[in-house]
Amino acid sequence: MRKTLTLICATALPLAAPQAGPSTADLAAPHLDVLPRSAKERARIAAVTAPPQGFDAAEPFEARPGGAASVRARTTPDAFSQPSANIPFERELDFKIGNGLFKKLWVSSPASTLASDGLGPLYNARSCQRCHLKDGRGHPPEGSDDDTVSMFLRLSVPVAPDEAMSEIEAFLLSIGEDAPRSRPDPVYGGQLQDFAVQGHAAEGRMRVDYEEFEVALSDGETARLRRPSYAIEDPGHGAPHPDLMLSPRVAPPMIGLGLLEAIPAEDILARADPEDWDNDGISGRAQIVWSFEHDRPMLGRFGWKAGAPTLREQSASAFAGDIGISSPIFDAPFGDCTEGQLACRAAPHGDGDARETEIDAEALDLVTFYSRNLAPPERPEAEDPQVLRGKRVFHETGCASCHQPKHVTHRLADQPEQSFQLIWPMTDLLLHDMGEGLADHRPEGLASGREWRTAPLWGIGRTELVNGHTQFLHDGRARSLLEAILWHGGEADPAKTRVAEMPKADRDALIRYLESL
Prior knowledge:
Order of helices and strands: EHHEHEHEEEEEHHEEHHHHEEEEEHHHH
Distance between the termini: 46 Å
Radius of gyration: 22 Å
Number of strands: 15
Strand order of the largest sheet: 4-3-8
């Protein structure tokens, strides 16, 4: 059976009775060759990942956020495009070939370039690089001359209470998680594709409108925020579902993904506190998703709501949904075309040659290897006095409660670049309620319409250098780091309020610290 790309697999299963919560064994990483930690190693890890005892100097190794994989800081737009500094020489060729595949422009079928055909029929971009510009951050369209290639809309509709449950929904219910339910739109699928190959209609265009308002800060300062609203213009396949839910997503930066994948699930789960038992106001939850490759529930790590469990599956999902390219994981040659788009499903495709799917297993592995080894740059300003003052403010304000600074990765038998590294990604990889202001009102797996995965902050200060803009958050609404902070709500509302009310000098130092990451 062809595996189409859906955010929740819709195979029906019998209803299960609630039981205990998820365990590390439930959410283990079968794709990693993990060497167990000794008791001595666990003690060392607890010591090095403990909160800082002071802020007069940088912590040991803080200037190398990716551990030994960190690359020397560059002052060029290629700062996010460097391979892990500890990559063995014989593996550099795989990185470069993966880079070539990441940049490759796909063409529609039939074509003489058999290794590159299969585009669409519906798509958002013709290559991975078109969305992840310079391996960095996408942006919303700015003005009539800008396009939406590095941003798109996720789509879904509510599920009727009596509709059959999917594998992941049944698993979540079995462990006592009554997750909100949704499905891709029956016609437009899981995301809006605004391009189509010749002879086919694009699904429509994303429209973004902004309403600006002013926020008062201490010491007489103010900030102006913009509240976006989204709509689909020129729908190409009839009127969308009346209850259609939209969720805008800009392409996130690519650095450090292999290191995030190597953080042990048990370490992430240990920080989860969904009932806020410690009464600190922070109730991070682990995302649990269905792995289409491993046919089991796994910990979600990648994407704005942690909807993908592994880099390989995330890459395959992007090929299917963004470019319309089939792979061994999502082998439907028509990408995100639905049963309501029969002409799209019947269009010529690139399956059936020696590759079997439009991107074969070997090429998918090379793209995954490339994505796994895009290295975080070093932090040469970690010892700067104002940066250290900002770090103190970051911790004292409560930002580190979600943006967990440090982790130690698994010891891995076959991934030396990611093995047993002290890293500083500034994330707990958990879901948090970010308040009504940032809500998309669209559930995804365990994530409600108000929850988002804590975004990693490493490299965030180099966004303008790499991508030529300073637009942040899942939809790029924030035009500066300060605006991004001021949009925080829900669990982060007390920290946001402290930032707005603190002396201007402390607020400036906090921004300076973030710019140094």
